[in-house]
Structure formats: structure tokens, C-alpha cells
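Lab meeting, item 3. Inverse folding demo.
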């Protein structure tokens, strides 16, 4: 959540240009080598997308999961590490900031799901010196482990996707 709180969708759009050789992102856009990614955040993994033929590897790795912020972070880190045998040949994005920026950009393309709150005491893009929210965890408390700083970023079930 900390990286998403500081994410830059405009930079995410620039990084996403690497993806456009295989993916479109326009509403109603056609699938290409890869599926159209419009409205992907919050959708079930390896389902839908206008009949796109997902690999068995991704279907297995994503069974029962949705493309929430954390799953997208894992996928964008290393698609082949996430789903060995996937059709996707892209090696992944090593920089956590690039992944967060792309995830924010993807979310703005038809999904618009609420972002998870940043961890208590974490700086945000709008106020780097914001105090922890009322009722926030004790600063000395232990936070649960997160994936590359994205924290617990599951998509709310009520998102309608």
C-alpha cells in the first residue's frame, strides 16, 4: 500500500507502453497476442476477456483468485515465476515503483477500485508528513509481511467484478 500511495499513473502509462506490443487497453478493444486489459483490476484471473485463450499454467496459478493489487504485483514482478509455463514472454518489472505505477494506471482503465490505505505512518504522495490516522496500529507494533511494499491489497468483494 505504501508504494501505491505514492504511485504515479502518468508514469505507469509510460511504462505500460512496453506492454502494448501484445496488449490493448481500450474499452471494447480487441485481444491481441495477449488479452485486452481494460477493466482487469478486480477480475478473476485467466477468465473472461472476450474469449482469450489463457494458458493452462495461468489458469492453475490463478484458480480462485482475482487480479487484486497484490496478485498484479506478483505477476508483474515475474510472470513466469507466478505461472511457470505462461504464454507471456515478458520477463517482468524489477522496480517496485514501476510496478505500482503500472498497477495504478491499469486500475484507472475501467476498474477504478478503491486503493488500499497506506500503512499507518507511511508518507503519501499528497502529504509526506501526515500523522498516523486515529486508531492506527501502535508504531512499535509489527506489521504483517507485504509483497514489495504493497501490503494487504486485496480487492473488496463488493467491487462488483
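The presenter then showed the designed sequence:
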Amino acid at each position: 500500500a505504501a508504494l501505491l500511495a505514492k504511485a504515479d499513473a502518468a508514469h505507469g502509462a509510460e511504462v505500460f507502453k512496453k506492454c502494448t506490443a501484445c496488449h490493448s487497453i481500450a474499452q471494447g478493444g480487441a485481444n491481441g497476442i495477449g488479452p485486452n486489459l481494460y477493466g482487469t483490476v478486480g477480475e478473476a484471473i485467466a477468465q473472461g476477456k472476450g474469449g482469450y485463450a489463457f494458458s493452462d499454467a495461468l489458469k492453475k496459478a490463478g484458480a480462485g483468485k482475482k487480479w487484486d493489487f497484490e496478485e498484479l504485483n506478483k505477476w508483474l514482478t515475474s510472470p513466469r515465476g507466478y505461472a511457470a509455463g505462461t504464454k507471456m514472454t515478458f520477463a517482468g518489472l524489477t522496480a517496485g515503483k514501476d510496478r505500482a505505477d503500472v498497477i495504478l494506471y491499469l486500475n484507472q482503465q475501467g476498474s477504478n477500485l478503491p486503493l488500499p490505505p497506506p500503512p499507518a505512518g507511511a508518507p503519501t504522495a499528497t502529504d509526506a508528513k501526515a500523522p498516523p490516522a486515529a486508531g492506527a496500529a501502535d508504531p512499535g507494533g509489527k506489521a504483517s509481511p507485504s509483497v514489495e511494499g504493497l501490503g494487504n491489497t486485496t480487492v473488496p468483494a463488493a467491487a462488483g467484478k
